[in-house]
Amino acid sequence: MPQAELESSKTVREQEDARLAALASTGILDSAPEPSFDAITRLSAEYFKADTVLLGFADESRIWIKSYWGEPVRELPRSHSVFEMVLKEDGPVVVPDVTRHPQLAGSRLTVRRLEVISFASAPVRSGDGKILGALTVFGCQARRSMALHELHMLESLADIVAGQLELRRLRKAVHAYLPRTAPPPENVTGIWPRKSDLRQALEKNQFVLYYQPEVELATRKIVGLEALIRWQHPKRGMIGPMDFIPLAEETGLILPIGDWGLSEACRQIQTWCDQDPECCAPRVCVNLSARQFAREGLADHVEALLRQSGVASRQLGLEMTESSIIPDSSTAMEVLGSLRRLGVSLLMDDFGTGYSSLNYLHTLPFDVLKIDRSFVVRMTQGEQPLQIVRTIVELARVLGMDVVAEGIETRDQYDLLRRLGCRFGQGYLFSRPVPAETVSKMLRLPGRILPEPTAGGAAN
């Protein structure tokens, strides 16, 4: 074999080895079919009116299907597959009519019992660009060539899958190095805080709420506030939630602390309404813990607080992460339905950081999607994180949801989000979490419009 061919063959093997290593690092082939991807295949089928949609990842010889819509498929041979075409093109492949394709004319392309006439496929890539799998929509009839915006939508959906894979890989890497330590017992000297400290903080009313504005990005008008708890300790000063909320969750004190937070937020909303009767207070969003969400009678408790405070339900928002609703999806649907009937806003917080968030996004009645700050921070660092944010914004638009981008810290992030069509955001660029008294001053600004952020990343 000539030297050039040997070197070329060696390069191909090295590239395939690197691709397989990237695939292995995600752990996706070792898992059962992923429900987190079902929303993607389902949405793809609806959007493209496809007969079958497959999301698969390829090892040396097989394509392992992790989600499908239509024809049930678990695995396919890799040889002469659509994946091989995507890998060869190093990009999407669109074939509107197999019978007219120069390389496929006269051949029969089948997926199990389905005879395929048209298909389009977009690559699912690793963080460094290696093609790990493909999202493919199949049709049983010839179709017109895919429009550019349709191709972009298919690529965007594939990039959402890529984002989920990257988060899976990072979790796997982090968990491998996390120490397996038990929580310290209450009576260990020097450990702080303890359960008794939290109980005392409740009794002595040492907790306070700070508020971070959510703004309309086009105008910088304050449209909402996120309530964030702090502990004003008489000796240790202001203590952030990460220093005491995990213990509160572990000990069960998160329930009375959470009840206090909801009650205080409603009281403060009414105070702002009294200060400016002609202009209602913006919506205030309160984070619900997993224990609060699982608690029986949550909707009745919220309704009672609204009646006691005189606050309109539209002025209260409830934020919850995916982890708080995963354990029992049927109960989650019932609880969310009862909360929605009250008229409060429902927000999915930290979207994109859970295994099944896409699935829950598609089936549960959320009004607002909050893009996790990790995506916002990374979107100026490369095309893939940017594409993930773009796709989340587009998905929310298709599903009729509002989007709030969290963690906006720089003018570049702010400008990018506006160009992507993201309507709302929050972050240090506009304001850090501030006391209620500071918010009162902000609400008296003309039009409730915050100052123009500077290029350096801070508001004037």
Annotate the secondary structure layout.
Elements lengths: L2 H24 L11 H11 L3 E7 L3 E8 L5 E3 L4 H8 L3 E3 L13 E3 L2 E3 L1 E8 L5 E9 L8 H30 L17 H9 L3 E10 L4 E13 L3 E3 L5 H7 L2 H22 L7 E5 L2 H5 L3 H12 L6 E6 L7 H14 L2 E7 L5 H7 L4 E4 L1 H6 L4 H16 L3 E4 L5 H10 L3 E2 L10 H8 L17
Parallel strand pairs: 10-12, 12-13, 13-14, 14-15, 15-16, 16-17
Antiparallel strand pairs: 1-2, 1-8, 2-3, 4-7, 5-6, 7-8, 9-10, 9-17, 10-11
Describe this structure in words.
The termini are far apart. With 460 residues, the protein is an alpha/beta fold.
What's this, in brief?
The protein has 460 residues and is an alpha/beta fold. It has helices spanning 3-26, 38-48, 82-89, 148-177, 195-203, 245-251, 254-275, 290-294, 298-309, 329-342, 357-363, 373-378, 383-398, 411-420, 436-443; strands spanning 52-58, 62-69, 75-77, 93-95, 109-111, 114-116, 118-125, 131-139, 207-216, 221-233, 237-239, 283-287, 316-321, 345-351, 368-371, 402-405, 424-425.
